[in-house]
Amino acid sequence: MVRITGIVIEVSAGASDDHDLSASALSSGSDDRPVGTGRKHCARWACSLTRPIRPPGGLTLKTLADAGAHILNLPEDIKQRSSWRRATDILLKAASGAASVEDATAQIEQALFMD
Q: How many angstroms separate the Cα of 88 from the Cα of each of 16, 64, 76, 101, 111?
């Protein structure tokens, strides 16, 4: 369990490739929900980012779950930067269906650029 800006977030891997990153602000479950403009349906955290993101260190972020795990592994002082707080907020919203995956992808890229 990791505490990020007052929200408790848990990362767990199930029997499948789907990861469930849940926060108290989001409802639980892994049902399919529309994402973005409704053109794409996915199981929340398993949604593919608009394009792969390659942060320094050799990892490639391909899904919302990958991006969430990356943010969780950042040092605390970096997580507290406004660009990463925005990225976390939009990522949580995208996983719940309240924001688009395109917006989450763009904000993560922006946060990486700001670093």
A: 24, 10, 13, 12, 10
